[in-house]
Amino acid sequence: MRTRHYHLMAAPTRDNLTRAIIRRGHWEPLETKVFIGLLKPGAMVVDAGANFGHYALTAANVVGSNGQVIAFEPHPKTYGLLVANAALLSTDNLRAIQAGLSDTSGKITLYSDSANPGGHSFFEWNLRRSDGHKETVPVYSLDDFLKKELPGKRLDVLKMDVQGFEMNLLNGAKETITKDKPSVLCEVTPEALQRAGSSHSELLKFFKDLEYQMTVVDSEAERLVPTSFEALVTALTNTDAEYFDILFQATS
After folding, report:
1. Is 132 helix (H, G, I), strand (E, B) or coil?
2. Lowest CB count within 10 Å: 92, 193, 247, 250, which one?
Protein backbone atom coordinates (compact mmCIF):
# COMPACT_ATOMS: atom_id res chain seq x y z
CA MET A 1 0.00 0.00 0.00
CA ARG A 2 1.16 3.56 -0.70
CA THR A 3 0.60 6.34 1.81
CA ARG A 4 1.57 9.99 1.55
CA HIS A 5 4.94 9.39 3.16
CA TYR A 6 5.97 5.79 2.36
CA HIS A 7 5.02 2.36 1.02
CA LEU A 8 4.17 -0.46 3.41
CA MET A 9 2.93 -4.00 3.67
CA ALA A 10 -0.59 -3.59 5.09
CA ALA A 11 -2.68 -6.43 6.53
CA PRO A 12 -6.44 -6.18 7.26
CA THR A 13 -6.24 -8.31 10.42
CA ARG A 14 -7.07 -7.28 13.97
CA ASP A 15 -3.60 -8.18 15.23
CA ASN A 16 -2.01 -5.49 13.09
CA LEU A 17 -2.09 -1.68 13.33
CA THR A 18 -1.90 -1.42 9.54
CA ARG A 19 -5.60 -2.35 9.49
CA ALA A 20 -6.23 1.28 10.51
CA ILE A 21 -4.01 2.52 7.68
CA ILE A 22 -6.16 0.58 5.20
CA ARG A 23 -9.35 2.11 6.59
CA ARG A 24 -8.12 5.70 7.01
CA GLY A 25 -5.30 6.01 4.52
CA HIS A 26 -3.10 7.66 7.16
CA TRP A 27 -1.82 7.36 10.72
CA GLU A 28 -1.76 10.11 13.36
CA PRO A 29 -1.73 13.05 10.92
CA LEU A 30 -1.05 15.90 13.36
CA GLU A 31 1.66 13.99 15.24
CA THR A 32 3.20 13.06 11.90
CA LYS A 33 3.21 16.67 10.73
CA VAL A 34 4.91 17.74 13.96
CA PHE A 35 7.42 14.91 13.65
CA ILE A 36 8.31 15.82 10.07
CA GLY A 37 8.87 19.40 11.18
CA LEU A 38 11.66 18.16 13.46
CA LEU A 39 13.54 16.40 10.66
CA LYS A 40 16.17 17.60 8.24
CA PRO A 41 18.41 15.89 5.66
CA GLY A 42 21.30 14.11 7.32
CA ALA A 43 19.64 13.87 10.74
CA MET A 44 19.87 10.86 13.04
CA VAL A 45 16.56 9.62 14.43
CA VAL A 46 15.72 6.95 16.98
CA ASP A 47 12.22 5.44 16.98
CA ALA A 48 11.56 3.60 20.26
CA GLY A 49 8.52 1.35 19.97
CA ALA A 50 8.50 1.48 16.19
CA ASN A 51 5.69 -1.05 15.60
CA PHE A 52 5.13 -1.43 11.83
CA GLY A 53 7.37 1.58 11.22
CA HIS A 54 5.18 4.60 10.54
CA TYR A 55 7.52 7.17 12.10
CA ALA A 56 10.71 5.34 11.11
CA LEU A 57 9.61 5.04 7.47
CA THR A 58 8.49 8.66 7.41
CA ALA A 59 11.83 9.79 8.84
CA ALA A 60 13.86 7.65 6.44
CA ASN A 61 12.31 9.40 3.46
CA VAL A 62 13.03 12.85 4.92
CA VAL A 63 16.57 12.49 6.32
CA GLY A 64 17.80 10.97 3.06
CA SER A 65 20.81 8.82 2.26
CA ASN A 66 23.09 10.84 4.54
CA GLY A 67 20.74 10.43 7.50
CA GLN A 68 20.22 7.49 9.79
CA VAL A 69 17.07 6.03 11.39
CA ILE A 70 17.32 3.40 14.13
CA ALA A 71 13.99 1.70 14.84
CA PHE A 72 13.63 -0.43 17.99
CA GLU A 73 10.76 -2.95 18.08
CA PRO A 74 10.98 -5.90 20.50
CA HIS A 75 7.88 -7.89 19.47
CA PRO A 76 9.01 -10.60 17.01
CA LYS A 77 5.96 -10.60 14.72
CA THR A 78 5.74 -6.81 14.62
CA TYR A 79 9.49 -6.60 14.05
CA GLY A 80 9.06 -8.85 11.01
CA LEU A 81 6.59 -6.39 9.52
CA LEU A 82 8.91 -3.49 10.31
CA VAL A 83 11.74 -5.23 8.42
CA ALA A 84 9.45 -5.95 5.46
CA ASN A 85 8.42 -2.30 5.32
CA ALA A 86 12.02 -1.08 5.60
CA ALA A 87 12.86 -3.22 2.56
CA LEU A 88 10.40 -1.14 0.48
CA LEU A 89 12.43 2.05 0.99
CA SER A 90 14.50 3.43 -1.86
CA THR A 91 17.37 4.07 0.59
CA ASP A 92 19.10 1.80 3.09
CA ASN A 93 19.18 4.34 5.91
CA LEU A 94 16.71 2.57 8.22
CA ARG A 95 18.13 0.01 10.63
CA ALA A 96 15.58 -2.14 12.45
CA ILE A 97 16.61 -3.57 15.83
CA GLN A 98 14.62 -6.38 17.46
CA ALA A 99 14.95 -5.04 20.99
CA GLY A 100 13.52 -2.57 23.46
CA LEU A 101 15.19 0.34 25.21
CA SER A 102 15.64 0.41 28.99
CA ASP A 103 17.87 1.82 31.72
CA THR A 104 20.37 -1.04 31.34
CA SER A 105 21.28 -3.51 28.61
CA GLY A 106 20.16 -7.11 29.10
CA LYS A 107 17.02 -9.22 28.63
CA ILE A 108 13.45 -8.80 29.83
CA THR A 109 10.05 -10.47 29.48
CA LEU A 110 7.70 -9.02 26.86
CA TYR A 111 3.96 -9.74 27.14
CA SER A 112 1.73 -9.83 24.06
CA ASP A 113 -1.54 -7.92 23.98
CA SER A 114 -4.12 -9.90 22.04
CA ALA A 115 -6.57 -6.97 21.99
CA ASN A 116 -4.19 -4.16 21.03
CA PRO A 117 -1.44 -4.75 18.44
CA GLY A 118 0.20 -1.54 19.60
CA GLY A 119 0.04 -2.48 23.25
CA HIS A 120 2.61 -5.24 23.77
CA SER A 121 4.29 -4.38 27.04
CA PHE A 122 7.04 -5.21 29.50
CA PHE A 123 4.29 -5.04 32.16
CA GLU A 124 1.65 -7.78 32.05
CA TRP A 125 -0.85 -5.59 33.94
CA ASN A 126 -0.63 -3.04 31.11
CA LEU A 127 -2.35 -5.30 28.56
CA ARG A 128 -5.94 -4.85 27.47
CA ARG A 129 -6.21 -8.61 27.06
CA SER A 130 -3.59 -11.26 27.67
CA ASP A 131 -3.54 -14.61 25.91
CA GLY A 132 -0.69 -15.74 28.14
CA HIS A 133 1.94 -15.35 25.44
CA LYS A 134 5.27 -13.97 26.60
CA GLU A 135 8.88 -14.20 25.57
CA THR A 136 12.31 -12.99 26.60
CA VAL A 137 13.67 -10.20 24.42
CA PRO A 138 16.83 -8.08 24.47
CA VAL A 139 16.87 -4.50 25.72
CA TYR A 140 19.56 -1.86 25.43
CA SER A 141 20.43 1.31 27.21
CA LEU A 142 20.35 3.88 24.41
CA ASP A 143 23.54 5.39 25.79
CA ASP A 144 25.29 2.00 25.55
CA PHE A 145 23.89 1.25 22.10
CA LEU A 146 24.90 4.55 20.52
CA LYS A 147 28.39 4.50 22.03
CA LYS A 148 28.99 1.04 20.60
CA GLU A 149 27.18 1.21 17.27
CA LEU A 150 27.34 4.91 16.29
CA PRO A 151 30.21 6.50 18.22
CA GLY A 152 30.47 10.22 17.69
CA LYS A 153 27.07 10.55 16.02
CA ARG A 154 24.66 13.19 17.30
CA LEU A 155 21.06 12.21 18.05
CA ASP A 156 18.70 14.77 16.54
CA VAL A 157 15.22 13.32 17.14
CA LEU A 158 13.85 10.69 19.52
CA LYS A 159 10.31 9.35 19.18
CA MET A 160 8.98 7.29 22.12
CA ASP A 161 5.91 5.06 22.40
CA VAL A 162 6.80 2.49 25.02
CA GLN A 163 3.66 1.71 27.02
CA GLY A 164 4.63 2.91 30.51
CA PHE A 165 8.35 2.16 30.13
CA GLU A 166 9.20 5.81 29.50
CA MET A 167 11.37 6.44 32.54
CA ASN A 168 13.33 3.24 32.05
CA LEU A 169 14.18 4.41 28.55
CA LEU A 170 15.00 7.97 29.59
CA ASN A 171 17.23 6.87 32.46
CA GLY A 172 19.20 4.76 29.99
CA ALA A 173 19.45 7.67 27.55
CA LYS A 174 20.22 10.50 29.96
CA GLU A 175 23.83 10.95 28.87
CA THR A 176 22.84 11.16 25.20
CA ILE A 177 19.91 13.51 25.81
CA THR A 178 21.98 15.76 28.07
CA LYS A 179 24.77 15.96 25.49
CA ASP A 180 22.85 16.11 22.21
CA LYS A 181 19.62 17.81 23.30
CA PRO A 182 17.46 16.00 20.70
CA SER A 183 13.84 16.92 20.10
CA VAL A 184 11.66 14.25 21.74
CA LEU A 185 8.13 13.31 20.67
CA CYS A 186 6.73 11.16 23.46
CA GLU A 187 3.47 9.41 24.23
CA VAL A 188 3.06 9.94 27.98
CA THR A 189 0.79 7.49 29.83
CA PRO A 190 0.11 8.77 33.37
CA GLU A 191 -1.59 5.70 34.84
CA ALA A 192 0.91 3.26 33.34
CA LEU A 193 3.82 5.33 34.59
CA GLN A 194 2.39 5.36 38.11
CA ARG A 195 1.78 1.62 38.14
CA ALA A 196 5.33 1.10 36.87
CA GLY A 197 6.65 2.83 39.98
CA SER A 198 7.29 6.17 38.35
CA SER A 199 5.07 9.14 37.51
CA HIS A 200 4.37 11.71 34.85
CA SER A 201 5.77 14.32 37.24
CA GLU A 202 9.10 12.51 37.25
CA LEU A 203 9.11 12.31 33.46
CA LEU A 204 8.29 15.99 33.03
CA LYS A 205 10.92 16.96 35.62
CA PHE A 206 13.50 14.98 33.66
CA PHE A 207 13.00 17.40 30.77
CA LYS A 208 12.48 20.48 32.94
CA ASP A 209 15.87 19.93 34.57
CA LEU A 210 17.43 19.82 31.09
CA GLU A 211 15.72 23.13 30.21
CA TYR A 212 13.31 21.71 27.65
CA GLN A 213 10.11 23.44 26.62
CA MET A 214 6.91 21.39 26.47
CA THR A 215 4.11 21.39 23.89
CA VAL A 216 0.99 19.22 23.94
CA VAL A 217 0.12 17.77 20.54
CA ASP A 218 -3.67 17.81 20.79
CA SER A 219 -4.87 15.71 17.87
CA GLU A 220 -8.51 15.89 18.97
CA ALA A 221 -8.54 19.70 18.76
CA GLU A 222 -5.96 19.61 15.93
CA ARG A 223 -3.67 22.12 17.58
CA LEU A 224 -0.37 22.50 19.40
CA VAL A 225 -0.56 23.82 22.95
CA PRO A 226 2.67 25.20 24.46
CA THR A 227 2.56 24.75 28.21
CA SER A 228 4.58 25.04 31.39
CA PHE A 229 5.90 22.24 33.57
CA GLU A 230 3.48 23.12 36.38
CA ALA A 231 0.43 23.33 34.11
CA LEU A 232 1.27 20.05 32.43
CA VAL A 233 1.76 18.23 35.74
CA THR A 234 -1.69 19.42 36.78
CA ALA A 235 -3.29 18.49 33.46
CA LEU A 236 -1.88 14.95 33.52
CA THR A 237 -2.82 14.52 37.17
CA ASN A 238 -6.46 15.37 36.51
CA THR A 239 -6.94 13.87 33.05
CA ASP A 240 -9.21 10.98 32.09
CA ALA A 241 -7.23 10.49 28.88
CA GLU A 242 -5.14 7.34 28.54
CA TYR A 243 -2.19 9.26 27.15
CA PHE A 244 -0.91 12.64 25.99
CA ASP A 245 1.40 13.21 23.01
CA ILE A 246 4.01 15.73 24.11
CA LEU A 247 6.81 17.41 22.21
CA PHE A 248 9.90 18.27 24.22
CA GLN A 249 12.41 20.71 22.68
CA ALA A 250 15.59 22.08 24.16
CA THR A 251 15.70 25.81 24.76
CA SER A 252 19.50 26.01 24.78
Report:
1. strand
2. 92
Give CA–CA dist 213/208, Å, rounded: 7
Q: Which DSSP letter does residue 5 get?
A: S
Contacts by 228-237, CB closer than 8 A, 24 or more apart:
229/204, 229/205, 232/204, 233/200, 233/201, 233/204, 236/188, 236/190, 236/200, 236/204, 237/190, 237/200, 237/201
Which tens digit of pLDDT belongs to each residue from 134-190? 899 999 999 999 999 999 999 999 999 998 999 999 999 999 999 999 999 999 999
Answer whether 248's CB lies under 8 Å from 214's CB: yes
Helix ranges restricted to H, 38-141: 54-63, 76-86
Which H or E run includes 44?
strand 44-48
Tell how far CA 225 is from the center of its chain. Answer: 20
Rounded to a whole number of angstroms, the CA Rg of the chain reads: 17
Q: Distance between CA atoms of 176 and 169, rounded to whole angstroms?
A: 11
Domains parsed from the chain with CATH numbers: 28-96+155-250 (3.40.50.150)
Using DSSP's 3-state secondary structure scheme, residue 225 falls into strand
